[in-house]
Each structure stands twice: as C-alpha cells, then as structure tokens.
C-alpha cells in the first residue's frame, strides 16, 4: 500500500480509539465536562421567576460517560448565592408563570406543571414541543408543537423527527407525497384550571415562533407550507385564539425572528436579517406600531436578542465586529445606551443572547476561550459573576490564547476573525488550520475552548487555528452580510485565502503546512478551496455541500441555495454548476477526508459521497467517513469525539513536520 493510500486508510479505520489522538480528545473533553457527575457544565434559556426570586435555565451535564452524551435538566439558580439546584431531570424549556406559583417544563412525557407545593401534573402530546410561553395573566400556556414527521432545523441536527425513533421495519418503504399531515407546526393551548389541552391552529398554517400580545392574541412568524425551506419566506401574522384566524402584519424583504410585544401591547418588535439558518437571526431591530414598521438604532450592532423591560424600554444584545454588545433602547426617543461591550467575553450559544430580571437588569451565560461558562449580571458597564459552571481543572486544560485579528482582502475589504495559538510551544512558523464557520450568515466569537471539536488538542500539538469571519458574517451591517448573497464561493473564498496569505507573511503560518476544515457552509467552502488552490496540505470538509444541483433537489432547504446563488438550478453554465466543487475536482491535489451524518437532511450524505468519488476519479487522495445515525454537523455523541480524533489524524498525517506526534 503506497504512502497516500496508507495515510487515508489510517484515518478511516473503523476504530480509532486506540490512537493517541483519541486519547487526547477524550482527556480534553473529560476535563471540560467532568462526566458522571451532577454538576452542569453550562446552561441556556435563562428565565427569571418573580415568585421564586431566582433564575431557571436548561442545564447540560454528562450523567454517564462522554460517549453516552449529555442530557439536559431544568436548573434553579439563586441570583444572590449562585447556588445551582436541579429541579427537573431530563427536562428543558423551564417556564415559570408570571406570578411564579407554577413552573412548567418539557420532558419526555410531555409538559409537566409543578406547583408551589411540589405537586406535578403532566400533559402528554404527540410531537416535539419547540416553544412554550405563559399568557400574561398566567392562566394559560401556549405550546408550539412540531408534528411527529417534521424536520428539525440544521442548527439542531437537520434530521426528521421520526428518524430519531430507531430503525424502521426493513420491509416497509418510506413514503413521501410532499404534504403529510404530521409535518405541520401548530399552536396548542393548555389551560391548567380546566385541565384542557387543545389545538388552535391548523394546516395550511405553519408556525415557527410566537409570542403573546394579550390574553387572546398571539403574534407569530408563520408560513403557508410546512417545509423547512418555507421558513425563508415566512411572514409576521397575528392569530386570534378564539377563532384561529390569522391576519398578516408584515411581509419582510429578508428573514425575521424573535417576535416580542411591548408591556402595553401596542408595539411589536422583531429582528429582520439576511439569514442562512432557521432560528439564527442577527440583524436590524424593527418596531411595528399602528401598522407602520421602522428600524431603530442599536449602537451599530446587529441585534440577535431583545426583551421588553417593565418600563417600555428594550434591552438588546448583538454583534459589532468582534465585540458582543448589550444595550438599552428607548423606542420613543430612538436612543440607545451602551450597557456593556467586549471582545474579551461573549454570551449565548449561536449568537449573543440575554435575559432580564424584574429590575430589567441584563443577565446572560458568559464565556471566553479560556473562561468556562458562567452566569453573570451586567452592572455599571461590567459583568458580575453570579454562578460559575466551570468544572474543577477545566481552565488548566485550555492551551494557548485567542486574539482578535484582521486583514485586507484583495479588494481592500477589511476581514475580521480570531487566531488561536500557543507561543510557548511554537518556534517559528507553525501549521495553520483554517476553520470556516457554518452559515454563511454566522460568526466565530471568543467562545469557551473555541467550541470546535479538535481545537484544543491541535493547539496543544503546536497548531495555530484561524477562525475567519468572511463577508456574509453578521456584526457589520446588512451590506457586509449581503456580500455573500449571489456569490457563495466567490469573494468569500478570496477573503479566506487572503487570511492565509496574511499569516504566512507575518511568519505565523508555515506555507507548507496549511490545512482547512469547516462544517455545513464551512464544509462547502473547505471543499471549494480544495478545487481553487494547490496550497493546502490537507482538508477535512464536514457535512458539506459539494453539488448545488443535487443539493437543491435532495435537501430539505432548497430555498436556501435559491436565495444565496445568483442563477436558477437549470441554467446551463450557471452558479449551480460553476460553484459546485464536484464539477471542479479535476486537478485537485489536496488529500481530503470528508465526513457526514447519515440522517442529515440539511446537507445530505450524498454530497460527501459525490465529492469523495470525484476526487478519486481525479487521482486525488480522498477518504469518506459517514456516521449512519448522525445528523447535521456531527454534534452528537460519540461521533463528536470520534470525528475529532479522525480530524487530528488526517491533518497531522498530511501536514509535513508533525508526523511524529501521531504515534
């Protein structure tokens, strides 16, 4: 077996768990997550409970081994002492009633209501509960329920809900007629006093998000189709719960999310932005009052979260370049005050997110590359630690440091990003991994351990990791985000290569040891760069798009490529052909390991197979790794650990000068 074939074989062995790379990955995440313990390592979805005087959150922990994966529990966080107490095992979506006398949460059994005396009442419902909110008077609970056959978003795994139920009978075909009744997302109303649970909305109305306007009215983001792609064309509507009738309120130019209503019910706020992924919205904050919609000023930040305070002001969070910003807006004066801004910390999962307490003080889950998640309060332009989620010894396991960086693209556009490296173990130019985020309308931030599967172990081995935010990323206004629309694989690709040039010239990156990886859009771009340059020593595309034509007709989000490519699929010589790595593979020389999930409907595994086959036909070293029970981005366990080890093996096998570290 020759050298390239042998190296390809090593990285796709069925079992890599005996490798040093896997041992390093396992040790790294063991330090971060402390499995088999009771202490959560992070939390999300913070909610203030006035009656309890505490915050509630969905907490994550590993109750068993790393390979068994994490679970979520409802946790109660004391804002004074920082004590974290788990009150709902295996639960999520904690929702205290307005007066705080009842706690609602979702678990495998359905919706559980816990009264002040600890008595629990559970209501079962078919489907997946994706959102749950109390009415303003606390009398009823609205549920957004995805049907049992619905797809979940790419951010959550991108697979069909019924695919997660286990293997089907081998003899039964899967039937699709495009309009199955079990795919709709509908609103249900739970009335605890009457002990009733009733469906309010019906097909052909599909609800993506909602909020209460008053005790009989909801404001929703909705479409007339249940398909995942129809979210890109969703509109703002109002629903009368007494009749189920929907009235249109706003037809956006781009995508919308996070409908909210002012305390007096007269003003509706929402975010409108160019979006590539359902549920990940970061852009302009808009207000609708008396039928008119206007955009408000938000300190030059793209807004990703906002909440109405008790005095009719809006507390918001968002991105401004590499900074995370939290501000306070007076909508009557259209004036905003900066409460806090930093690139040394960020908050939230996919984008900055916050919560507020009864005094309108912003709280959030903060983190940084070398700082484990903690719940903090923003007070006087500073962040006060309330509850720390760091595991013992976790901070010591983080190698190197992170810094905000920038460079100039070929057209003189400033491109920003982050660089992770450890100068203590690097002597001269080091191997550089270009890690491209998903989206494309998303952004790398200063996050705990970089939130990348192999970043920590690679930095410990002497690698530098470049996290670029090319045109298309939020935080720099709609103009910058729109730079990728109609041009994916064009100027954005040149932004990335100019970043490599910058760090090679600076003496940080070794030009002979530059590699690329990325997930989803980052997977597409990783594959695209393989066909654009011969300068890469290795590539690891994950959940990529490699053939836009077949992607359009096999993915559950064909509206995405229709929005982000300039030409229709059937245009001869158009972008569906010209920007597809599969059709550009001839002449490619970069050894490439392509990984994907077998259940992925966002970027189906056939995309990975097509690219692998195209590279082999071109005589290029290629390996393919499909995880049959995994969804989009390979975020589940144990595939997250396994794929991290394979990534390390592939990169170090193919980047000269680091081979000895693999043994």
UniProtKB/TrEMBL annotation:
One Pfam family matching this protein: Peptidase_S9
GO terms of biological process kind: proteolysis
Residue ranges of every copy of the Peptidase S9 prolyl oligopeptidase catalytic domain listed in the record: 458-654
Keyword Hydrolase in record: yes
Keywords: Hydrolase
GO molecular function: serine-type endopeptidase activity
Record SUPFAM superfamilies: alpha/beta-Hydrolases, DPP6 N-terminal domain-like
PANTHER family reported in the protein's UniProt record: DIPEPTIDYL PEPTIDASE FAMILY MEMBER 6 (PTHR42776:SF27), SERINE PEPTIDASE S9 FAMILY MEMBER (PTHR42776)
The protein, known as: Prolyl oligopeptidase family serine peptidase
Source organism (scientific name): Sphingomonas lycopersici
